[in-house]
Each structure stands twice: as C-alpha cells, then as structure tokens.
Specification:
single chain, 547 residues, alpha/beta, Glutaconate Coenzyme A-transferase, 2 domains, eight-stranded mixed beta sheet, seven-stranded parallel beta sheet, 14 helices
C-alpha cells in the first residue's frame, strides 16, 4: 500500500490558491494547530496558498493560538492575500479575527455551531444544503440580514441563506461552498490512515467534515494531524473514528501543537481514560473555577428551575449549559450532590460530568457518554432535552435575546440559536447589568455597592439571535434570571416576577432598564439563594419522596 504519512511542508504545498478549507476545532479541542501553522508558514515562504476561505464547525483557536495567532499576523499585514473570508460560528476566543472582520478586511458569515455541523453532514450526503426552522425571525433570516455580519460578506455572498416554504412552514436553506481540503485532528493513525481519538476530549464533527470534503461532484483531500502512528490492524474497528479510505495524508505533530484544551496539554481525565468520582477532588490540579457571589445566586436559581422539572417528570432532567454563568450550574449541582437528578449535556458532545470553563469550555470531567456534535445538536433542535440555560448580552421588551454581537464586538452566535430555538424551556442567565461592579451578599441579602454602567435590558436588541415571538409561537417556556430579578415571557412580552431581598424595585431594577416591564404578582427570590452554605435541596427531595 502507498504510505499516507507525509511531512508537513510537503502536504501544505498541495493546498491551492482560492481553496475552501474545512478545519475542525472547538477552541483548542480537536484543533489541528500544527497543520494550521504549517499552512500559514507555507504562505509566508512561498506566497501560496492565497485567497483561501475557511469553514469551521466551531472555532479552531484561543487567544494567541490556532487561527488567532495567524489572524494577528494577517491583521498587521495590510496587503495580506492569505485569507479572504470565513464561515465560523464562534469568534469569542479570537480577538484578532474579530478585528479583521469588524474592519471589513475579510468576509464573515456567522452560522450557529449546530447548523454548521449539520451542514457538513448534508453536503456529505449530496444534498444542496441544510433546511431548518432555526433562524426564522432572527438576524439569520434573509428578511432581516442573513448570516453575513460585515459589509464584505453582504457584498460577496459566498455563503447564503434563502427563505423557503416546506409544508406551509417557513424554513431556511443554508448554503456554502463545498470544501476542497479538510484539516482535521485525531490522536492516532495506523499505517492505512484509520484514525482514532482516544486522547481527545471530544469527537466534534470530524467525520462529517471528512465526508463533506470527499463527496461529489468534487472530491477534495483530507489531511489529518495525529500524535501517534501504529501498525495496521492494531486499532480496534469500534475505535476507528474516521476510516482510512477517507484520509489522504497523515502528519505527525509534536505534543506542543496537540494540546487537549486551552490550558491542558494532556490529562487522562479529559480524555476519559480515568473517570474520577464526582466530588470535591474532581478538579485537582486544574485551574480553579472562581464564582462570584452574585454569579452563584444566578446559577442556584437555575438549579431550582431544573429541580422543578425533575419533580414533575420524575426522571433525570436533561439540560444544556452554555458558556459563562450557565456553566457554573454544574458546579452548584456538584455542591448540592444532585448530578443524578440533573444531567448536563454540552454542545461539544458530553453527557453528564462537570463542565470546564474559560478556554477549556467544551470539555468535561467524568461524563458517561460522548456523542459527535451533529448527533448532540439533534437533541437540542429536536427538543429532546428538557431545558437549556444560556447567557445573554441584551434582552428587549418582547423577549428577544442577543448573546454576543455589538457594533464593536462580534463573538458570533455559537451554539446559541439552535439550542435556544429547540429547547422546550430556556433559562437565560446572566448579570442584570454589565461592566465593573461591586455586588455581594450579606445577611442573606443582595448588596449593590457599585453597579455596572452598561444596561442589558434594552428597548431593542442590536441583533436578534433568539426570537421571543418564535418561542411563544411554539409554546416554549422562557425565563430571564439575574442576581436581582427574574422575568418570564408571554405573548405580550416579559413580566417581572421575582426580586432579590435587599434590592429596591425602582432604584436597582426599573431605573436600570430602557423599557418599563409589566410587573406581575411580585415575590421575593428564594432565601436559600443568598445563604453562605449550600441550599441542601437533595435532603429536601429525599424527604419528599420518602413521604
């Protein structure tokens, strides 16, 4: 057989000008950093490839690594000809890509993670694109803006979204160019190119990316980065994540270019070779998770909502927890010892376990199952999960939510539109205001010494990423949970339902909103949220079921 093992310089020279390149990566998990660096070094040395368009299922970068490191060099080169544009769901960990996009230096299209993962699978199946209801009445809807998030994208329309009708229902057709090349990552390849991911923390969309690249009418080339080469036949068939006939070339990377996550080079807990018990020692040796008092109030309030679902369902609750404050919900669940009642699932594929945060977000310790990203997003879009808790940047009077896009900030939609659009219950969780603050808890009351200066409850959100009208139309239960107030959504907009002890309604809430919400039968938020000790909800449930 012909050897598929190849030197980095030889393989990147095969990538031609004007290519569409699909790259795997969820922050640093599954990011083929060695291939990305090698591709750019080839451009610097030989002025090729030029004018490439990159598509990713999430974001193959964190600050100063992966695509962000390259983007900084491109930003400082006003005549760069390497990158013409990108379809990328998330930009939050790539400040330099954001700068290039905001200054209209490259095209940008912001599809959600689940949509992009699905799209790879649809293209692999020979279909013209992805058809879905996700995105209706949001910035993705072509009746509003479509997915182009800068002027260059609007003008060139490399990626398009069209409104179509299916059985009398408005849907969107997502279309983008098929990849010419795929840069993906696994842990091990055998001599025939069979790939396994035994040291990776996620499975991502790697197989779908590979299949999309190999589909007709134009079959592209697949290049894989691995740490290890093993003999043919030594990877068990059940452990092969990508079959060798779909892989053209394999490059061996050094450990320094193959980290499991943003802060972790290698930890067997991250790749589930060791499954520690869920207790206080689970994070030993990892960066500590720091939760402010007011953030813990919010996370606890979300937990109470989830326990209410459990009480009605009488079965474990499936919940997706987003980045930011929602990710702290899993820490509260661990503290309260209720991880058997509430099972968190991450968009990157993990079922259960404790989610990591920051640049390690997307990884978890001690999950009991690991899905691919397209498979996991089916659970979100199809409403298979019970609930989701997601962060927010802006909320308006009719319940629309903008999690991540402002005129000077463009993090992209991430997994948000698919998760919030499909979950039957969504709890948007975040601080009431933004900016530097001094908010603490004392004597079981909220103390606001200095408030954030940025208003988050606005007359109209800058970009509609979640549609309140669509949520009401499909009967979804929506709540907006902050440290000082809790709102719910109905057909007439949002209603204020709860207020924190120690907070003044006019001074601390109404005066910090751009609109006057309807005020329902106002009650005080649960006192347990503001206690120094844990809420002891597990004991309460045990007592209840014993009766």
């Amino acid at each position: 057989m012909f050897s598929k093992i190849i030197d980095i310089s030889a393989v990147v020279s095969k990538i031609q000008d004007n290519s569409v390149i699909a790259i795997s990566g969820f922050n640093m998990a599954l990011t083929p950093e060695y291939l990305i660096d090698g591709l750019f070094e080839n451009y610097i040395k030989y002025d090729h490839p030029k004018n490439v368009f990159i598509i990713s299922d999430a974001l193959p970068a964190i600050p100063q690594r992966g695509l962000d490191k390259i983007a900084e060099k491109l930003y400082n080169d006003p005549s760069q000809k390497f990158l013409r544009g990108t379809l990328m769901p998330f930009l939050g960990f790539s400040p330099w890509l954001q700068k290039m996009i905001l200054e209209d230096r490259i095209e940008y299209y912001g599809w959600p993670i689940g949509i992009t993962s699905y799209w790879f699978r649809e293209i692999a199946s020979g279909r013209p694109g992805l058809i879905t209801k996700i995105g209706i009445d949001t910035f993705l809807d072509p009746r509003q803006e479509g997915s182009a998030l800068n002027n260059l994208g609007e003008r060139n329309e490399t990626c398009k979204i069209n409104l179509i009708e299916v059985g009398g229902v408005d849907c969107l057709l997502y279309q983008a160019p098929e990849p010419d090349f795929a840069l993906v990552r696994a842990t091990t390849s055998d001599e025939d190119g069979n790939l396994s991911m035994e040291e990776e923390g996620i499975r991502g969309s790697v197989l779908s990316i590979v299949q999309a690249t190999k589909s007709h009418p134009k079959q592209g080339q697949v290049i894989a980065q691995v740490k290890w080469i093993t003999q043919t036949g030594t990877i068990r068939p059940r452990d092969v994540d990508v079959p060798g006939p779909l892989v053209d070339h394999v490059v061996i990377a050094s450990t320094q270019n193959h980290w499991q996550s943003g802060t972790i080079e290698y930890d067997p807990r991250i790749s589930y070779e060791i499954i520690p018990p869920v207790n206080d020692l689970i994070f030993k040796g990892l960066s500590p998770i720091v939760i402010q008092d007011y953030e813990k109030i919010i996370a606890r309030r979300v937990v109470l909502e989830l326990l209410e679902i459990f009480e009605k369902k009488q079965n474990p609750v499936l919940v997706n927890l987003g980045i930011g404050i929602p990710a702290f919900v899993s820490s509260v669940m661990m503290e309260e010892e209720i991880t058997k009642f509430i099972i968190s699932i991450l968009e990157s594929g993990q079922w259960g376990g404790i989610a990591l945060s920051g640049t390690d977000f997307g990884l978890a310790i001690s999950p009991f199952a690991l899905s691919t990203m397209p498979d996991m997003f089916s659970n979100f879009e199809g409403g298979i999960i019970d609930a989701a808790s997601l962060g927010f940047l802006q909320i308006d009077k009719i319940g629309n939510v903008n999690p991540s896009i402002l005129p000077d900030k463009i993090f992209g939609p991430g997994g948000f539109p698919v998760i919030a659009g499909g979950a039957p219950r969504t709890y948007f969780a975040g601080s009431f205001t933004a900016g530097k603050n001094n908010i603490s808890v004392s004597n079981n009351k909220l103390q606001i010494q200095d408030d954030g200066k940025i208003i988050k409850f606005v007359e109209s959100v800058y970009k509609v990423v979640f549609s309140g009208n669509q949520a009401v139309k499909y009967g979804h239960i929506i709540r907006y949970i902050t440290e000082r107030a809790v709102f719910k959504l109905d057909a007439d907009g949002i209603i204020l339902e709860e207020i924190a002890p120690g907070v003044d309604l006019d001074k601390d809430i109404l005066s910090k909103m751009e609109f006057a919400p309807r005020v329902g039968q106002l009650k005080e938020m649960d006192a347990r949220l503001f206690g120094e000790n844990k809420m002891n909800v597990k004991e309460e449930f045990i007592q209840k079921y014993r009766r």
